[in-house]
Amino acid sequence: MKITRKGFLKLGLTAVAGSLLPPLLRLPLRGQEAGASEPAQPDLVAVRDGSPARMFDAGVRALGGLNRFVRKGKTVLVKPNIGWDKTPSEGATTNPDLVGRIVAAAYEAGARKVYCFDHTCNREEGCYRRSGIADAVKSNGGEMRSGEDQKAYRKVAIPGGQVLKDVLVHELYLDCDVVINVPILKSHGGGRMTAALKNLMGVVWDRRFWHREGLQRCIAEFPLLRKPDLNVVDAFLVMMEHGPYGATTDDLAMKKMQMLSADAVLADAAAAKVLGFTPESVPYLKMAADLGLGRMDLAKAAIKRVSLKV
Amino acid sequence: MAHRIRLLTQTAFLGLSLGVFFGLAGGRHIAAVYHGLHLFPTLASLPWFMLPPLGLVSLAVTGALLLTTLLAGRLYCSFLCPVGFLQELSRRLGQALGLAGRTTAGWTPVRLLVLALVASLLVHRSSAYLYFDHFSSLGRVYGLAHAWRAGGPFGANFFLGLAFLAVIALLPLRWPRWFCGALCPSGTLFMLMQALAPGKVRGRECGEGCGRCAEVCPALCISDGRIDGKLCINCLECSSACSTGALAFSFRWPWRAGDGGRVLPPGTPSGARGGCAPDGGPARRHPPLLSRRELLAGAGLSVAGWAAGSWVKRRLLGIIGPAVAVVPPGGKAYSSFLERCVACDICVSVCPSQVLVPVGRDLGRGGLAKVRLDYSVSYCAYECNACLGVCPSGAISYFPLAAKKRIRIGKARLIKEACIPYAFERDCGACQEQCPTGALTMEPFKSVYVPVQHEDYCIGCGACQFACPTRPRKAIVIDPVEVHSFVSPPKRGSRIDCRTCAAGKGGQACWRCRPAADEESGSFPF
User: Fold this and answer.
1) N or C: less crowded end of chain B, CB within 10 Å?
2) Does the pTM exceed 0.90?
């Protein structure tokens, strides 16, 4: 066969087109596969069967890495639940290893400074010490601040708040570039459950106002001020009833789970399921979703489930 | 030499007392030794099982103290007592200001009256002796700093502290160690013991008459060449200042020949200033400790003091029930606590929650300045038994933390008409949130959850009352109980809930009874 110039060009173009065809055809196919099981950035990552620190590492990787939330040179507030003068094994306060790991990870992600505090219910000194959190934070280079001094709180207006209008909020919650909310999941007598949204009650000064004027409404409205950038719900040792203090360790169940999400409402909706509730039965979740602070419909969310079981 | 040693030991003990009162010094071991040196509180805390854990240490120290005093006089008063030290500092100031010293020798009958009254009160189990006790009075002086820092309350014990401060800071400017020589019941007892003691400072003719001994005496007890046994605190200042060795500490058993122990330096002509005159006459009998007049007046007043003790306890400063205040765990009962409390404020200063406050007039005269729990300012922390190990007078007995957690000091009462979820149908739960024993649970009621009491578990810690956000009236309050008791261990969920849940009664299964499918399968419940 004689190769003419025209023929050569035709052949060449056909070959190029042919070589391009398979990728062009496969592209939507691959997209479908990915959408079915592996969104680039899931709305919620649920991890189970690892130590709290390991589950955080796996979870935040699945969420797209901590660099998504913590940029170089930023200040970070890690806000665990340190409300009670109890040991980690009593399940009333956030796991200290988890808090320590988050502080370390934030520095690895380039954070300039990592702070930690809680406005505790029991006396602060006892809570910070016995929960093991003060040690965990300090040994990873973080700084513990006090929540007991009213001077550290500033009065701010809650945009769009109906019940909650002016609130004294701790300066760290207002001033830090990044807030990582690290609640422990527990049942809660007044609020039904405590996890991501309820944990933010620990950054305000006057909690009695919330109880007096409508606990559910206030919990729902507070994030109108500022939503945490990342929520890590510690559901390793879960207080299933008599929360938030707990009467005995009989109230605890070893769930070995952790939920991570930028959406506090979504994280709480999943947490409610762990406690055995429907998200709808927790009034403040519905109110928060109605205020547009997050989604509570687990069926519509992109959830990545990770098991670390070997 | 004696002067330097004394300065050292007195300063050390002043520091120790500060540490003990403010809960800083070396924990309970040091405190036990310190308490033991304070006679009346330790004696009041007998029998031994009412003592703090190291009470036997305190008791041993007290025994050693009494033995030492019997053998070698008032070494405690001169070398250790912080109250005496503070008075000596005041006297130094008085000297610098040029104030002439006066002695308190004339107060002897009063001292005997006070001693008899205090002894009677101890026997009658009344802590009203606190008004004369230097140990608890010093505590109230230190408590001034506490009240000042906290901005109040400026109640009875503040003013008692202020009054005692005036007694030890102002009176000694002119009357050296006025409190020791006029009121202190321990001082009076030690004075009597010193009179019998073989070891003490004695003098003989010196031939110099330099008068330095009288100058250095911090109790102003040397005059006219005599040591006044009523005021001498055996501090050894005179003997170490004496250039001739005429004044010296010596041991002479009273039954030994010559009755040497009771012979004073051959007297000086009356009117000579200080020291031992060179031209003393023949040795003469030491004048008795008490003159005949003092002896008669003292005996009469002692009888009166002893009789007054029972009257004070019954009529004047008795504790009258029913219980109107919550008293600390370990206090055992309202009246027995208040009958033993000496209002020294140690527990107030060690309480990390600051729920312990000195009482005003609301408990009657007998409760004045003593201690109660005030749930409007704080609550009794569950994980704490700080006040149980420090009480010097046995008012608060020691219990380990696990036992203290079960002591009922009061009982919660829910006032539904004022309670937010009951009255306004709004979720609250502030009380249940704080309840450490499960004595409150939240149960469904209309559209909300309401607190429900389980009285068997309530210890009356007041966390609920403190947390309750209603105002002006709290919707849950702690009623005091007359007698403390032990409650059941904290509420255990499974025992209660599993009776009514899935076990065939058609109710909703509790979390314990639900099949834990996802636990097994490694999946999630969402």
Assistant:
1) N
2) no
